[in-house]
């Protein structure tokens, strides 16, 4: 038996966490073929395909409005470093794919940010890459959300937050339901 000091170091595996949402997921059961809350391991050279064709896609979405292959994800290593990344490619001729509000047409691809929102049609997928070292495998972990992923709690704030003054969310809530007009105050008066 090998001692603890002589045992091989375990490599961590890059894991792509994906949280799925569709407004009619309960009625239509569009995610019924996805394995939620289980890590799945894929070979590093595999292309993870999402779509409605069960003969081609590993991740099947049961919806006639989804393309046979909607999009694909592939692991790669950047030329200038050792970090592992994913690229996402739109495989649908009919539907544009959005990645953090950037539209991808048919066969367009980009590097997947470490955390991003992917969407097409009514589908919302929050993706988060947990970095690892293994160049042989990667894992996926799927979750199901009961609420829209476009709520503030999931998206990073795109508005600057002032050092002093009103937060943007308070400003917008007052703009919708004004109670009183905001008064501008010089910072020397504080």
TrEMBL record:
<dbReference type="InterPro" id="IPR008984">
    <property type="entry name" value="SMAD_FHA_dom_sf"/>
</dbReference>
<dbReference type="InterPro" id="IPR033621">
    <property type="entry name" value="TIFA"/>
</dbReference>
<keyword id="KW-0963">Cytoplasm</keyword>
<keyword id="KW-0399">Innate immunity</keyword>
<dbReference type="InterPro" id="IPR000253">
    <property type="entry name" value="FHA_dom"/>
</dbReference>
<dbReference type="GO" id="GO:0045087">
    <property type="term" value="P:innate immune response"/>
</dbReference>
<feature type="domain" description="FHA">
    <location>
        <begin position="49"/>
        <end position="121"/>
    </location>
</feature>
<dbReference type="GO" id="GO:0005737">
    <property type="term" value="C:cytoplasm"/>
</dbReference>
<comment type="similarity">
    <text>Belongs to the TIFA family.</text>
</comment>
<dbReference type="Pfam" id="PF00498">
    <property type="entry name" value="FHA"/>
</dbReference>
<keyword id="KW-0391">Immunity</keyword>
<dbReference type="GO" id="GO:0043123">
    <property type="term" value="P:positive regulation of canonical NF-kappaB signal transduction"/>
</dbReference>
<protein>
    <recommendedName>
        <fullName>TRAF-interacting protein with FHA domain-containing protein A</fullName>
    </recommendedName>
</protein>
